[in-house]
Amino acid sequence: MKNYDVIVIGAGAAGLIAAGRAGELGAKVLILEKMERAGRKLLITGKGRCNITNQATIAEYQKHIHPNGRLLKHAFSQFFNKDIVALLESQGVETVLERGDRIFPVSDKAADVVNALVNRTSKFDVEIEYHARVEEILTSNQAVTGVRILKNGTKTDYFAPNVIFCTGGCSYPATGSSGDGYRLAKNVGHTTTTILPALVPIETEGSTAPDLQGLSLKNVNAIIWIAGKKQKEEFGEMLFTHFGVSGPIILTLSRFIVQEFNNKKNIELSIDLKPALDDMQLDSRLQRDLNEHGKKQIDNIFKLWLPGKLIDVFMQLANIDGEKLCNQITAAERKKIRVLMKDFRLKVSGYRSFKEAIITSGGINTAEIDFKTMESKIIKNLYFAGEVIDLDADTGGFNLQIAWSTAYLAAQSCVNKMNSLIEKQ
User: Fold this and answer.
1) CB-based burial of residue 29 (10 Å sphere; 0-12 exposed, 13-18 middle, 19+ buried)?
2) Which residues contact 410 (CB under 8 A, 6 or more apart)?
3) For 26-35, what is each residue's pLDDT tens digit?
């Protein structure tokens, strides 16, 4: 029989932190990972750079986490952004603070973060078994007793009084996060909320986005409109693609867009290309430039207003003749230009799949988890951490911090509980 104190399912961000903390507290720990190596998804975070965390306060974090960031107040109080930075630096990974309060490794290599966390687990004699797919959670009298795995066609049982779910969600399934955790949890009585892609690129109708493919816009405002009402907006950078739009502000808005699209809502995305100017200020700017360059063709003056790649598409949408002289532009035409600059519309037609989603929206129902310990309220000594829970966040390092904090708390809770029971015996 193979017996352990703690079994951790998944060797991703949450799994490595959980195993390291449990090992640090003296537990005999086993990580079961179905892929061929640890941290597959962690390796591609932040475009391979790994946005480790964000320097924001706990109160600011809660605003970026959905659907209820307040649930993580205790987990953050136990292990937060300064703690993961200190832990990594103790393992030789120096960090740097960048714009948006985001923290990255100085090396710009996510592999350095993965290697540091794996090396830390080895210091505490944590065992990692690869190519080990967990098929079943073993229970008795509504308490965990171990897990059953499938490896090389053979099923094997591993026993432990504590199991920590760090299975990830459904995003980037090629890295191993293919939704196994939801199935395993359901089989022991848990429920999940609706599982959808989040932080995912958005598809749009028509040829506008494909015609602008590769164009990146900075300092613009993206606004979601549903049934003539403004719903949400984000300021920053976005990107046009062959299928629609992506980039930081689109990814942040995507969680809401995906949910509303699945509710059969008609969604339009409006881009304010000149958010620093109100309508009157923009109109004054247009009049001034048109007057100063009255004898020049309008297509030459557009270079003062818009990125080159956007000009032809913009003039077609505004139905402006590019050869027309500036002093021949009518007030009605000037209004068309101004309105389109402030309200460049795209109709949402869908969203990309989990293969392109950074994170998963939905997961294990938070009402079934004790957030003081991360323990299941249904099965004793079963704990949850990371993306498998129905908590997700905006871009900027927030999602990884959820994984670090919940995993640390889960490991600490289960080992302390186990040691307390031993002392009583």
Assistant:
1) buried
2) 18, 164, 373, 374, 375, 383, 384, 385
3) 999 999 999 9
Which residues pair with residue 115 across a beta bridge? none
Angle 81-90/110-123 helices, nearest 10 degrees?
A: 80
Rounded distance between C-alpha atoms, residue 79 and residue 82, angstroms: 8
Q: With 0-12 CB in 10 A as exposed, 13-18 as middle and 19+ as buried, what is 331?
A: exposed
How many C-beta atoms lie closer than 10 Å to residue 68's C-beta? Answer: 12
pLDDT in tens, 167-205: 999 998 888 888 999 999 999 999 999 999 999 999 999
Short-list 53, 106, 113, CA closest to 80: 53
Take residue 7 and report the two structure tokens written for it: 């079994």
Q: How many CB atoms lie within 10 A of CB 336?
A: 17
Lookup: tokens for 356: 């392109």
**Tokens standing for 187?**
């089989």
- CA nearest neighbour of 385 among 166, 121, 190: 166
Please enumerate in sequence order all residues whose Cβ is within 8 A of that of 136, keeping only pairs 6 or more positions apart, or say none: 147, 148, 184, 187
Length of the chain: 425
pLDDT per residue as tens digits for the range 120-163: 999 999 999 999 999 999 999 999 999 999 999 999 999 999 99
**What is the 3 state secondary structure string of the chain?**
CEECCEEEECCCHHHHHHHHHHHHCCCCEEEECCCCCCCCCHHHHHHHCCCCEECCCHHHHHHHEECCHHHHHHHHHHCCHHHHHHHHHHCCCCEEEEHHHEEEECCCCHHHHHHHHHHHHHHCCCEEECCCEEEEEEEECCEEEEEEEEECCEEEEEECCCEEECCCCCCCHHHCCCCHHHHHHHHCCCCECCCEEECCCEEECCCHHHHCCCCEEEEEEEEEEECCEEEEEEEEEEEECCCEEECHHHHHHHHHHHHHHHCCCCEEEEEECCCCCCHHHHHHHHHHHHHHCCCCEHHHHHHHCCCHHHHHHHHHHHCCCCCCEHHHCCHHHHHHHHHHHHCEEEEEEEECCHHHCCEEECCECHHHEECCCCEECCCECEEECHHHECCEECCCCHHHHHHHHHHHHHHHHHHHHHHHHHHHC
pTM, 2 dp: 0.93
Instruction: Go through the domains of the chain in sequence order and give each one's CATH number.
Output: 2-196+358-424 (3.50.50.60), 201-352 (no CATH)
